[in-house]
Amino acid sequence: MTDSHPLDRFPPELGARPAERRRVITQAVISAYAEASGDHNPIHLDLDYARRSGLPATIAHGLLTLGTACAGIESWAGNEGWVARVFCRFSAPVPAGEGITTTALVSAVEEDSAIVDLTVLTSTGERALTKAKVELRAS
Amino acid sequence: MAFNIDCMGKSYCGAPEVLDRGRHLVYAEAVGASPASDEGFTRPLACFAAVYLLWPVVPQLFEDPEVGLDVEHLLHGEQEFSFERPLLFDETITPGGEISQVDRRRGMVFLEFCCEGADRTNQVVARSRSLFVIREAG
């Protein structure tokens, strides 16, 4: 069972599952991220360039995928916790137009910190990120 | 342009940047973030700080002729961020980065790039570790 409500006290319960999030990473989303981050690598923005690089489409920035997954946890933690550490391995590219689904599990809890494991899958079931974790600290 | 394996330890400095609310709004929309309360975002999203830690210095690394990175064959392998405290809107962060490890094996270069962001009092408040993997030609 996932918890769609923001965290109301810290620490969260061990085994808690913040609400699943699904988001389609359109080219417009990728372009907006490029604008915000300043990363205008053509592999994210230019279809011809991406195809010459052997890809079927432009791909999302890895940090867009990570930021999308992490933002859901920050929204869930609300004013109770803040992100002290984020880690991930980028394991599969996310082409423009692809949906990603993030699920989360609180895997460790201490009085003033908690670890949330993230699973980020594409619509074909491929893991976009592996070993993704967010460490929260009590606000 | 051949990759220079002796580039380990090379460092880069970025100009001080203000954690800007307007830019944050564009970022938040791109990652589909919504604020926890009706008050809006009370502090910047953690990964937004990555923009300020990485992108003022990473382009310098990518474009450095002394390093010779083949960006067309570069993959972002891993990423880690850590923060000493929550960062605040409108505070100024000065980033710097260093090539902290280089390893060449099986036709690939593994390059670890570490960044730090310091606040106005020169305290390091955020760190980043990126692993880039470059497939070498041939």
- pLDDT averaged over residues of chain A: 93
Q: Main beta sheet of chain B: strand number and arrangement? A: 6 strands, antiparallel
Q: Largest sheet of chain A, order of strands side by side?
A: 1-3-4-5-2
Shape of chain B: elongated
Q: Kindly, what is the distance between the CA atoms of the first and last residues of chain A, rounded to a whole number of angstroms?
A: 26 Å
Indicate the overall shape of chain A. Answer: elongated
Assign the CATH class of the domain at 21-25 and 61-138 in chain A. Alpha Beta
- Contiguous runs where pLDDT drops below 50 for at least 5 residues of chain B: none
Structural class of chain A: alpha+beta
Largest interface (CB < 8 Å): A-B, 37 and 35 residues
- Number of helices, where a helix is a run of at least 4 consecutive DSSP H or I residues of chain B: 3
Spell out the CATH superfamily of the domain at 21-25 and 61-138 in chain A. Answer: Hotdog Thioesterase
Q: How large is the radius of gyration of chain A?
A: 16 Å
How many structural units, i.e. domains of chain B? 1
Distance between the termini of chain B: 13 Å
CATH topology term of the domain at 21-25 and 61-138 in chain A: Thiol Ester Dehydrase, Chain A
Q: What would you say the CATH architecture of the domain at 21-25 and 61-138 in chain A is?
A: Roll
Oligomer: heterodimer
Uncertain spans of chain A, ≥5 residues at pLDDT below 50? none
Average pLDDT of chain B works out at 91
Q: What's a quick, concise take on this entry?
A:
The complex is a heterodimer of chains A (139) and B (138). Chain A is of the alpha+beta class and 139 residues long. In chain A, 27% of the residues lie in helices and 35% in strands.
Structure in words:
The complex is a heterodimer of chains A (139) and B (138). With 139 residues, chain A is an alpha+beta fold. Chain A has a domain at 21-25 and 61-138: Thiol Ester Dehydrase, Chain A. Chain A has four helices and five strands. In chain A, a hairpin with a 4-residue loop joins β4 (113-122) and β5 (127-138). The radius of gyration of chain A is 16 Å and the shape is elongated. The mean pLDDT of chain A is 93. Chain B has 138 residues and is of the alpha+beta class. In chain B, β4 and β5 (108-118) form a beta hairpin. The model of chain B has no long low-confidence stretch (mean pLDDT 91). Chain B has helices at residues 21-30, 48-54, 58-62; strands at residues 11-13, 17-18, 74-83, 92-105, 108-118, 124-135. In chain B, strands 1, 2, 3, 4, 5 and 6 form a six-stranded antiparallel β-sheet that branches. The A-B interface holds A 6, 21, 23, 29, 32-33, 35-39, 41, 53, 62-64, 66-68, 70-72, 74-75, 77-79, 82-90, 139 and B 23, 26-37, 42-43, 45-48, 50-51, 54-55, 71-72, 75-83, 86. β2 (81-90) of chain A pairs antiparallel with β3 of chain B.
